[in-house]
C-alpha cells in the first residue's frame, strides 16, 4: 500500500504528525526498564557466577567502585545496548513495545553513530542523574540528548512507512524550494 502525503499539510501539522510517529517518553521509559531487567538477568545468571567461580569477587582496582563485578556489569550494560542496536536496531525492550532506533540521516546507522548514542550519550545522560532523558518528552521527534549526539531517534514500527513518506516529501519540497 502506497502512502501519499496530502499537499495541504502545513509545517505545524507535519510537526504534530511526527510527534505521533516517534516514540515518546513513557513508552521509551518502559522499554528501558525491560532492558534493565534483561541486563540484570544476564549479570545474575552469567557474570556473577563466573566472577565467583574465578574467585574474583573481592578483586578491585584501587577502590571498590572499580571492582571486577562493577566493571563487568558496566561492560555488559554497554555491550547489550551497542550490539542489540547494531544488529537489530532495537533492544529487547524496544522490540517488545514495537519500537526501533533509526538514523535521522535516512540511511542505516553507522557503527560510530551507535557507539556515540549508546555509550557516550548514555554515559553523559546517566552522569547527570538521568535528567537529560526527560528532554524526550519535549522535543519534536522525542529525542533524548544521546539521540541528538548521534542524530538518531526512536520510532514506532507501525508508523515507519508514514514517516519515510513525510521525510521523502520534506526533502523533495526542500529541493524544490532551493531550485
Describe the structure.
The chain has 179 residues and is mainly alpha-helical. The protein is built from seven helices and two strands. It has helices at residues 11-21, 25-54, 68-88, 92-96, 111-127, 145-150, 160-178, and strands spanning 99-103, 152-156. It has a two-stranded antiparallel ribbon.
Shape: elongated
User: Strand content of the residues, in percent?
Assistant: 5-15%
Provide the low-confidence segments as ranges: 171-179
How many alpha or pi helices?
Answer: 7
Query: What order do the SSEs take from the amino end to the carboxyl end, as H and E?
Result: HHHHEHHEH
Structural class: mainly alpha
Main sheet strand line-up: 1-2
Distance between the termini: 31 Å
- What kind of assembly state do the chains in view correspond to? single chain
Roughly how many Å is the radius of gyration? 20 Å
Characterize the main sheet: 2 strands, antiparallel
Helix content: 55-70%
Secondary structure elements and their pairing?
Layout: H1 11-21, H2 25-54, H3 68-88, H4 92-96, E1 99-103, H5 111-127, H6 145-150, E2 152-156, H7 160-178
Antiparallel strand pairs: 1-2
Helix pairs in contact: 2-3, 3-5
Tag the structure with descriptive keywords.
single chain, 179 residues, two-stranded antiparallel sheet, 7 helices, 61% helix
How would you concisely characterize the structure shown here?
The protein contains seven helices and two strands; from the N terminus they run H-H-H-H-E-H-H-E-H. The protein has 179 residues and is mainly alpha-helical. A two-stranded antiparallel sheet has the order 1-2.
Amino acid at each position: 500500500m502506497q502512502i501519499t502525503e496530502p499537499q495541504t499539510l502545513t509545517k505545524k501539522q507535519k510537526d504534530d504528525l511526527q510527534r505521533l510517529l516517534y516514540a515518546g517518553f513513557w513508552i521509551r521509559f518502559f522499554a528501558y526498564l525491560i532492558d534493565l531487567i534483561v541486563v540484570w538477568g544476564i549479570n545474575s545468571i552469567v557474570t556473577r557466577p563466573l566472577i565467583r567461580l574465578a574467585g574474583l569477587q573481592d578483586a578491585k582496582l584501587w577502590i571498590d567502585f572499580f571492582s571486577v563485578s562493577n566493571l563487568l556489569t558496566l561492560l555488559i550494560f554497554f555491550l547489550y545496548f551497542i550490539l542489540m542496536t547494531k544488529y537489530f536496531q532495537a533492544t529487547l525492550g524496544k522490540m517488545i513495545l514495537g519500537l526501533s532506533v533509526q538514523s535521522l540521516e535516512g540511511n542505516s546507522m553507522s557503527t560510530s553513530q551507535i557507539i556515540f548514542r549508546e555509550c557516550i550519550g548514555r554515559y553523559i545522560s546517566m552522569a547527570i542523574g538521568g535528567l537529560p532523558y526527560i528532554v524526550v518528552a519535549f522535543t519534536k521527534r522525542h529525542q533524548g540528548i544521546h539521540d541528538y549526539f548521534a542524530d538518531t531517534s526512536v520510532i514506532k514500527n507501525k508508523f515507519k512507512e508514514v514517516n519515510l513518506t513525510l521525510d521523502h516529501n520534506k526533502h523533495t519540497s526542500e529541493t524544490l524550494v532551493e531550485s
